[in-house]
Amino acid sequence: MTEEHIVTSFDDELRELTDGLIHLGGLAQIALANVEKSLKMNDHDLAKKTIEADKQINALQFELEEMTFNILAKRQPMANDLRSVFSSVKIILFLERIGDMCKGVCKRIAKGDLLNAKSPKTIDALVGLTKDVQNNLDLVLDDYAQGKADNALNVWRSDIKIDSSYASILTAILEDIRNKPEAIEALVPLFFIARYLERIGDQATNIAEVNHFIVTGEVLTDDRKLEAEEETVF
Amino acid sequence: MNDQLNNKSLIQCSNVNVFYADQQALFDINLDIRENEVTSLIGPSGCGKSTFLRCINRMNDVIDICKVEGSISIDNQNIYDPEVDVVELRSRIGMVFQKPNPFPKSVYDNVAYGPKLHGRILHQEDLDRKVEESLERAGLWSEVKDRLHEPGTSLSGGQQQRLCIARAIAIDPSVILMDEPCSALDPIATAKIEELIDELKSKYTITIVTHSMQQAARVSQRTAFFHLGKLIEVGDTEKIFRSPEHEQTEAYVTGRYG
After folding, report:
1. Span A37-75, pLDDT tens digits
2. Which domain holds residue A212?
3. Does residue A3 lie in a domain region?
4. Is B128 on the interface with A (CB under 8 A)?
């Protein structure tokens, strides 16, 4: 809906909320890009900077939640406005969780030395997983910024691939632990990193579902998800 | 328009057209109103929602230039059938207006007036019981039981409106029509009326015209949106306020045009 509200300050508030959310999404994207780079380059400094930058995400989360709260109280939005404001609360939380999980990955990178795991293939696979997750996050945030849900089902399908990569990485780490028990201290963090990345993928999927709800007013049902799963061919 | 029936429909309106002289006010309205539910009529001023409400108890009959075409059936009886006794019809349909309008009589007589007029209650003790029961049901009894013989107009605005509701239900109607019943009331009095509407729906079929979208969302199970004399959309209230089918409805409920 492109028409403006009769009360123009309501439009201003909605725009401010949407812009704020896009900004928050941008911070989450930066954190994830830093995760990828830190993993690839074993860059402890960048990992530490990313941990520190999470404070910015948390601060913006509170600001946006307050904004949403005030809009609900003052404007009592209806229909697409209601869907959009209600959904903002959810997306804010998903993005904040992504920030936390990027921080979790970076803590594992900064704490020890991943190279001690002597598993370059697993590191490569984790970098690959990060890229897949990044791609999904980019797609859903682009959708959100454009008020669309075009990529919702694609992201759903692609998350199944992410889950599958995650399972393969876990198997490889377990295999490494069996074969190189002396490297267990460096291998366990890889386990956690894989888990965090898989969870970030889930958050992107959550945002895809919310986008779908904002645009259509309907919840992406399990049937639709099942359809997507059945259509998936690896 | 496909309505999924929950309760059975009590009032069926088919191709209702209303004219004020040459001016058409309503165009081909087809709307079913379900029993024991609250139906809200919403839309910008002049959209025809009050005109439509007044067709349901033939109040438009008193306007000489007003002509109603089509059919409105209550309990499968066309109320525009020439053989219908309008006085009897109105005894089955209570009406509450925008401004509380108690008669210049005592609280007691305001409520007793209808049952006496229709000759339904002959004994004083039965009348006393009916007055108490109606005031009780309107949530007013505890506030006025010691003031029954004071003028109805001495009550507060909110109490007067509940007195009008007690007066409406004293004649045991099956339908209650409300035309912006809270627009002259403060938020507390409004909340009491809304609470009352919620309680009354188990016994009556209620149709309410309201300008407050939030009120429609709070009190009604179904909502009908009118615009320029046409029924644009009717559906479950939740659906209308969450994701309406029509762009015009969405524009109206979100405050994008009036």
Report:
1. 999 999 999 999 999 999 999 999 999 999 999 999 999
2. 8-231
3. no
4. no
Distance from CA of B243 to the nearest CA of A (A): 5
Pairing between β-strand B222-227 and β-strand B230-236 as defined by DSSP bridges: antiparallel
pLDDT (0 to 100) of residue A30: 98
Decide if A78 and B217 are in contact by the 8 Å CB cutoff: yes
Instruction: Give, in words, the CATH class of B1-87+205-258.
Output: alpha beta
> Which is nearest to A218 in space by CA: B254, B256, B239?
B239
pTM: 0.85
Instruction: Give CA A193 to chain center in angstroms.
Output: 14
d(CA A174, CA A168): 10
> A177 lies in a domain?
yes
| CA gap B104, B254 in Å, rounded | 41
Residue A218 burial class via C-beta count within 10 angstroms: exposed 0-12, middle 13-18, buried 19 and up: exposed
* Residue B36, phi-psi category: left (phi > 0), alpha (psi -120 to 50), beta (remainder): left
Query: Measured on CA atoms in the order A118, A121, A124, A129, is the torsion positive or negative?
Result: negative
Domain at A174, CATH number = 1.20.58.220
The residue in chain A having the minimum alpha-carbon distance to the alpha carbon of residue B249 is A79
Which of A90, A86, A66, A65 has the alpha carbon at shortest distance from A77?
A86
The beta-carbon neighbor of A6 closest among B217, B249, B258 is B258
The number of domains in chain A is 1
B221: helix, strand or coil: coil
pLDDT tens-digit readout, B79-92: 999 999 998 898 89
Distance CA B219, CA B40 (A): 8
Handedness of CA B165, B167, B170, B171 (dihedral sign): negative
Query: To the nearest whole angstrom, how far is the Cα of B257 from the nearest Cα of chain A?
Result: 6
Q: How far apart are CA A5 and CA B251, in angstroms?
A: 8
Contact A1 B257 (CB under 8 A): no
The answer to whether the Cβ–Cβ distance between A6 and B255 falls below 8 Å is yes
Spatial separation of the C-alpha atoms in residues B73 and B160, rounded to whole Å? 31
Q: Which of B213, B243, B251 sits opposite A217 (nearest CB)?
A: B243
Which residues in A lie closer than 8 A to residue B217 (C-beta atoms)? 78
Instruction: Provide, rounded to the nearest whole percent, the portion of chain A with pLDDT above 70.
Output: 94
B100 touches chain A (CB under 8 A): no
Q: What pLDDT digit, counting tens, does each position of B192-202 carry?
A: 899 999 999 99
How many residues are there in chain A? 234
Residue ranges in chain A whose pLDDT is less than 70: 1-2, 222-234
Structural domain includes residue A51? yes
Does residue A2 form part of some domain? no
